[in-house]
């Protein structure tokens, strides 16, 4: 393992100004945060009521009433606060927003119990049942989101109040859980607090938080399953009816984490757990744990991941199924799961300095995560299919989880705020730094300032990467730094050219997928131009759902066909992969987009009447031109069919 | 409407001796009835306990304990008794079996309440809640099965006891339900009693039973939905958690039945309802009701039916979805639904004397219904997919309802006894008669004796239809009858030849799909030879799941590929529909079967490593020969993949 991993460049040191991303990032502050604030306060007329702030007011003694919402309802406030924190950090302080956040933090402080406990569900509704159902109670999960939000707010504002609140709670958790006799030897049913405790350790320097995270990881799945022991205890009470028939794989508690070889169970739980495993592997320089992370990463990304970076292919229970089982129409592929995949991948990239991880981070962010949000920021996908026929997305059928139209909000509203916090903290995925090097993982136009080899360096990245594959990085400092600039060469790039100033580098130095520019001068202009031609991509033939089909990609972007461009019945289309693809920049389409045209054929409906369902009439085809647009933009025009994988003419 | 519909030839007048069917029919008496008897008595070690007989003993005061099982548990006994009755009727009386049945009927009599009420769930468990939840309570459904069994037993044995028991119950139902003030104006949540009441009317001549059936049909879906009114009443209590979010379409109570244009909701409920509608349309010469039957039939068979005769394409709630939504791998297509389709189709065939209905009856029986039972009679499919990959049939995922292996029994055990009673009464689907004609719908070797135009006629049908398309029908009587023999010309037959004696009929008289042989002589030998070549069949291109795919059929039999014959990964196969199919009679295979070979190609896995999931590697193919076997036999050898629809080389 590398002794020194890459670390994030602080968000306030990064200014993003990118044609592709700005429109989304802008939405966070302008649309999503105000909308979510209204939702948390039950002020949105046609959205499911959240009751979130009300719960805190009740717990704080400022309002009367019963707890309402899910057992993890508090996390919506936490994720909103975290997104606010990232926004203040990355877009600059905003008095009005900060005031709202401060007031909310004050309220949270009042809702905290004397002993530090913080959870409105248990405080209001089940005060005697604290920590009695770790499988379903989500207390540690909720604590994790509170901690993450508090650390982000502290980093953004320097204000300690929220950090102190969660530290008191974390201290209580440290007193409650651990290997010592008399403490609870359980672990969370939904991992999340582990990675949050690592963040809290890094913010406060208190090693006990790190040790507790390690304890949760090390004890998971060891010996007789804790959750089954728990069920036999007196105060245990089932919370979710769908947990009947629970299997420990669901929460990755079927085996000690170091012995797990395949990505199992609920996908979000899995990637949150793996993220913490990666953190701890680094902090404790634990090679065995890092090996487990690599094994799980490989299984997940080489056998169980959609080409869009979606994971969790079962519509029921949002879970992994089996290798190569990647149905396109009935899958789950939760937006949050792809966010978690990016979190895990970013950690692995930072620890290993291997570009293969950032390839997947880019895939998840540019495709599934962005598909999760409408271009106006007002509606969201929870589920991200790769093929949709709106007519059969019917309630109370096995397709009921698939929505052909983004939804305003959700009863379980994890995805919208999760997307918001990801967009607001995008900088963490762009840059990574160690003592002597700056790594660039995503080619997003931005500028930053940081120390490279003790030399303060200003970095200006001008990227038209998605349009033409070209990126220019300017480095300016007072003196030569002897440092290194590492530029990720995406795995999908077939050829690329690099210039250092006017000089083309003929034999570039590549290390684990990064182009290394060493011995940086005081002023540098590095230009890289990658092949960005639209291409056909195929799935391993073991993926039964994609056999005989092709997908169009361009750079990191997966493309799809939409009914709007191609007429109805997308299943009747064939693509001719022997014919060249044509690219067209369309300034007026979807905010400016490179659309791609392919030659193909369409099965005709001639010779079939409405009365005929089956007969001896072989298909007849006509030539057509297919038009594809980026998957992340699907469903932003008229509601209709969509398909990523297109049957090939063989 | 025809003034005189076709009627069944009584089962005891039909002797079946058929190479294809005998092996199944034999199983009913030899395997299924004894096995089910043991199940009903909880004497099968590794099967889910039924508790059925125990419930009756408790209700009869002969045993202590609580009711166990589903609210409709009694129907398992009813269906067993009905299958026993049909077996006694068709295979000849059997003292031992009849004794078991008589004892069971005695027990049922003792379990009947003084007022005639008969239902162990409500008698034991909820005596105060009779008729308070028609939506979920299944009381009328259960009554229906009891009545059907009793009528069958009376027809088979002439014994009245069971008929009297159910008549007393039916009288109570007549007193309880109806349009009069003070009576309950509800109708069954699960249709079934309607068609049973028609049978009871036909057996007893009591018109009140027919009128009540008509009332149930006429009041269904009229005005404010009865089931929603019911929920507001004091004694109402929800029974099934999955009924939360109930929509009236589920039980076809969303509209008056005459206004329903599309087959909606739970598929078994639908076809049981439609069967009763057909019965009543005839009995009351109600053209509007018959038109509704035709509209629903057409929607169902022209837009919502699998090529195997399976119906109900949603894995959740066993229901219809939308036109052309016929996914092959995640569908439900319950065995019972195809039985109900055959019941409805047989009624429509009898009323309209149009062969198109019998085409579908044949399709359902020869494919889905037979697939529902193992060739050894010991295990059953509830769900009948058209494509299976055993690896992804995983519990607690959206594929959990799909089983790649037939199951011994089920918690809700409707399908096994339903298949048994269908096999035991197969004769009803072979022949139909009116005053002057004998109609032959299924070419199953058998003999019968009946009046054709007042002349007692002996009919001997020798069929090798499934092997070579040939059937010979011998008619022997004392004198010429002036009657008609109507032979169904299957819709899939492209050409056929008919001989009357040694004379080939050059211009056969065809009426609504039947070949009419008129003015029957005292002795006739009619031979018909239909084209029986294996053929490729295609789906309407609106069926997205089947586009670009072909299915192999031969006569009524749908064929499928199995992993046993074709290796793993059936999705990698293409069939060349321009190449001829080859037929091979394999005496040793699956009890003697015509297998079919096709030319095709297979996508190779060369050039792909286990680490590669997506890349720019177009598929490479090699030539292969595909081998198909009848779908009804799938899963009788090694467990493996199966596929009905095969991608075509375009």
UniProtKB/TrEMBL annotation, chains A, B:
InterPro entries associated with the record: 6-hairpin_glycosidase_sf, 6hp_glycosidase-like_sf, Beta-AFase-like, Beta-AFase-like_GH127_C, Beta-AFase-like_GH127_cat, Beta-AFase-like_GH127_middle
Keywords carried by this UniProt record: Glycosidase, Hydrolase
Residue intervals of the Non-reducing end beta-L-arabinofuranosidase-like GH127 middle domain: 438-521
Gene Ontology biological process terms, A to Z: carbohydrate metabolic process
Domain Non-reducing end beta-L-arabinofuranosidase-like GH127 catalytic: 14-427
EC code: 3.2.1.185
Domain Non-reducing end beta-L-arabinofuranosidase-like GH127 C-terminal residues, every copy: 535-647
A GO molecular function held by the record: beta-L-arabinofuranosidase activity
Matches recorded under PANTHER family: DUF1680 DOMAIN PROTEIN (AFU_ORTHOLOGUE AFUA_1G08910)
Name this protein carries in UniProt: Non-reducing end beta-L-arabinofuranosidase
Species assigned in the record: Roseburia intestinalis L1-82
Gene coding for it: hypBA1_2
């Amino acid at each position: 393992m590398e002794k020194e991993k890459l670390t994030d460049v602080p968000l306030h040191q990064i200014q993003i100004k990118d044609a592709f991303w700005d429109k989304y990032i802008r939405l966070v502050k302008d649309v999503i945060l105000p909308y979510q604030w209204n939702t948390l306060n039950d002020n949105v007329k046609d959205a499911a009521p959240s009751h979130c702030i009300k719960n805190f007011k009740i717990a704080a003694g400022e309002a009367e009433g019963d707890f309402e919402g899910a057992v993890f309802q508090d996390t919506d406030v936490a994720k909103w606060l975290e997104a606010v924190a990232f926004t203040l950090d990355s877009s600059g302080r905003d008095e009005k927003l900060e005031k709202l956040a401060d007031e909310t933090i004050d309220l949270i402080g009042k809702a905290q119990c004397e002993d530090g406990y913080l959870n409105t569900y248990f405080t209001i509704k089940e005060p005697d049942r604290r920590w009695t159902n770790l499988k379903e109670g989500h207390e540690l999960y909720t604590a994790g989101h509170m901690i993450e939000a508090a650390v982000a707010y502290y980093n953004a504002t320097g204000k300690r109040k929220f950090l102190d609140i969660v530290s008191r709670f974390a201290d209580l958790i440290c007193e409650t859980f651990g290997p010592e006799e008399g403490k609870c030897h359980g672990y969370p049913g939904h991992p999340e607090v582990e990675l949050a405790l690592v963040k809290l350790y890094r913010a406060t320097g208190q090693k006990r938080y790190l040790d507790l995270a390690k304890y949760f990881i090390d004890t998971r799945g060891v010996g007789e399953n804790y959750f089954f022991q728990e069920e036999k205890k007196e105060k245990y009470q089932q919370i979710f009816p769908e947990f009947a028939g629970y299997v420990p794989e669901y929460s990755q508690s079927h085996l000690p984490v170091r012995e797990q070889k395949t990505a199992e169970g609920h996908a979000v739980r899995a990637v949150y757990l793996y993220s913490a495993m990666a953190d701890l592997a680094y902090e404790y320089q634990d090679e065995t744990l890092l090996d487990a992370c690599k094994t799980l990463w490989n299984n997940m990304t080489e056998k169980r991941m959609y080409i869009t970076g979606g994971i969790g292919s079962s519509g029921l229970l949002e879970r992994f199924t089996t290798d190569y089982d990647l149905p396109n129409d009935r899958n789950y592929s939760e937006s949050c799961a792809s966010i978690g995949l990016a979190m895990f991948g970013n950690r692995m990239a930072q620890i290993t300095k291997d570009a293969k991880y950032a390839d997947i981070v880019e895939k998840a962010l540019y495709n599934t995560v962005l598909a999760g949000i409408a271009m106006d920021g007002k509606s969201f996908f929870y589920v991200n299919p790769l093929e949709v026929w709106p007519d059969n997305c019917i309630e109370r059928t096995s397709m009921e989880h698939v929505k052909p139209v983004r939804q305003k909000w959700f009863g379980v509203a994890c995805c919208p705020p999760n997307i918001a916090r990801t967009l607001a903290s995008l900088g963490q995925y762009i840059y990574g730094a160690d003592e002597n090097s700056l790594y660039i993982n995503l080619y997003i136009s931005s500028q930053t300032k940081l120390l490279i080899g003790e030399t303060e360096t200003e970095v200006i990245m001008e990227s038209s990467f998605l349009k033409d594959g070209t990126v220019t990085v300017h480095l300016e400092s007072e003196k030569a730094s002897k440092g290194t600039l590492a530029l990720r060469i995406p795995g999908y790039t077939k050829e690329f050219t690099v210039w250092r100033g006017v000089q083309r580098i003929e034999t570039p130095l590549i290390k684990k997928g990064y182009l290394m520019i060493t011995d940086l001068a005081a002023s540098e202009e590095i230009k890289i131009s990658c092949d960005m031609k639209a291409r056909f991509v195929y799935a391993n033939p073991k993926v039964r759902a994609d056999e005989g089909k092709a997908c169009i990609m361009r750079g990191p972007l997966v493309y799809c066909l939409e009914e709007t461009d191609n007429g109805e019945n997308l299943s009747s289309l064939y693509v001719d992969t022997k014919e060249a693809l044509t690219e067209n920049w369309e300034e007026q389409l979807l905010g400016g987009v490179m659309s791609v045209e392919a030659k193909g054929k369409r099965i005709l409906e001639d010779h079939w009447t409405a009365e005929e369902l089956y007969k001896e009439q072989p298909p007849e085809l006509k030539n057509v031109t297919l038009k594809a647009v980026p998957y992340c933009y699907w469903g932003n025009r008229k509601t209709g069919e969509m398909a990523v994988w297109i049957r090939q003419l063989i």
